[in-house]
Specification:
alpha+beta; globular; 6 strands; two-stranded antiparallel sheet; about 25% helix; Nucleoside Triphosphate Pyrophosphohydrolase; 2 helices; single chain
Length: about 100
């Protein structure tokens, strides 16, 4: 998040920078934090992250990985997501499934 940005502006900018996609209207899904969102990076930095998660149907453009945050991008149905997700991403996806009657 940049100084002065809203969480929506941050999400739109990060998506654009990391995927090449432009997103419009966002709807808040949930906010995640707590012990399960602790992460220690390879350089030794430790963080307890707060993740503000949105969803949208307003996506335009072509997927283009930035080569730093991601090397490969793709679209997947909720039932066919890759098995290798971070524990934090798995928590969010499983919450989405429960709230939408998928699992």
């Amino acid at each position: 998040m940049e100084i002065g940005e809203s969480t929506i502006e941050t999400a739109q900018r990060e998506i654009r920078e990391e995927t090449g996609l432009e997103i419009g209207t966002l709807s808040l899904f949930d906010v995640y934090s707590g012990a399960e969102f602790f992460n220690e990076y390879p350089n030794g930095d430790q963080v307890f992250s707060v993740s503000v998660v949105y969803f949208t149907h307003d996506v335009h453009g072509d997927l283009k990985p930035d080569g730093q945050e991601g090397l490969e991008l793709g679209y997947f149905s909720l039932e066919d997501l890759p098995l290798k997700l971070t524990p934090q991403a798995r928590t969010i996806v499983e919450s989405f499934w429960r709230k939408n009657g998928i699992a």
